[in-house]
Amino acid sequence: MEAHVEALAELRRIYGKADEEARGNPALRCELSGRCCRFREAGHVLFVTRLEYDEMVRCGGAPGAGEEGVCPWLRGGLCGNREGRALACRTYFCSDEAAAAALTERHHREIRRLHERHGIPYDYRPLHGHAR
Ligand code: SF4
Questions:
Q1: Which of 36, 52, 78, 104 should be mutated for ligand 1, with most atoms under 8 A from CB?
Q2: Domain that includes residue 101, residue range
Q3: Quick check: 103 pLDDT over 80?
Q4: Residues 6 or more apart in contact with residue 90 via CB below 8 angstroms
């Protein structure tokens, strides 16, 4: 349990670095299209690791069933889980998809290593697949 708490704290530090890097790159702008949260409409799937999912639930509470094909934390067109949102939520920018993907990959590697260091199963799968 202690290791898990520490791992979540480290995850938040990784998120902090990703947020800072995104803020420092003028090519990365959120256009508030909401595409990142309406999965079916955008034709994508939000994948998260075990720790990322646990942080989402810790901050945003257990997700309800919600609308199919839409993130269960989307509220009135806005993210209802800003603090706990996953790396891919923080690094999804319509303005420059290539730069956004590079940012995601770099920090995702750190998240994978974090799971390994703490002996926590990586378990990278679609968001809805984590719901217990
Ligand atoms: S957690 Fe927030 S930003 Fe991420 S997909 Fe859900 S509503 Fe969108």
A1: 36
A2: 2-130
A3: yes
A4: 15, 18, 19, 22
